[in-house]
Please model this.
Amino acid sequence: EATVAVRAADLERYCATYGKAVQYLDMNPFIGAAAKNTEERLKQATKEQKPQKQPQPKSGKRDKNAKNAKNGGAKGGGGDGVEKEGITCDKYTQFGDWYKEIVTKCDLIDYTDISGCYVLRPSSYFIWEQIQTFMDSEIKKLGVSNAYFPLFVSEDALKSESKHFEDFNPEVAWVTHSGDTELDKKIAVRPTSETIMYPMFARWIRSFRDLPLKLNQWCNVVRWEFSNPTPFLRTREFLWQEGHTAHATQQEADVEVKAVLDLYAATY
Model:
């Protein structure tokens, strides 16, 4: 797999060689505010081309309860109280609201009472399971083993790497109490796992015979300090995998990095 760049002049020569005329498309009508007018024009054209439906004979008064049941038991069609009869926000002028409407009406997520924390409904979790299944099998082909490290990180461990702590400190969520009792030392909810995993690496790697050490974990992380959370894109808690490896030489590490980058490209 590779990305190939072709100059317009080369493409024109290629098409001319095989007797194919080059057709240029003006994309400006599909960008920004102009896209709205284009969409309305295309909708109108489609509407005009549709054959008119023949009126159906009436078969008597319809039971109101049956109609409500068909629509999901609530006005607007959502048994859970969510309007499901159509998308009400405009994609081009209200993109943020349109996106949130899409992910809820498609039953991908639901909101909780904590900002930035969402429920992954079965449809979206199924997608995550497919990613897990594919990636897990592929990373094991690279000799990577799965492990699991704690959700909580001591403040001392997090501060042991000052640059790492400086980068993540603004978004760390801290546990300060156990019930009503204040803890002697606050504990961080992991924003990432380097400061948990690498002390273990130092404990387990005693000589070159212990290399390479290749570990991966499927887990959740919490990153708190931001505004305007967005489902799937910017959430306070999210699922991910993180792989960490140690190698005897820089060359071995570079080969591993390239292999994993190719795997991410194949996955996403």
In short: The longest strand covers residues 213-222. The CA atoms of residues 108 and 123 lie 6 Å apart. The first helix runs from residue 8 to 17.
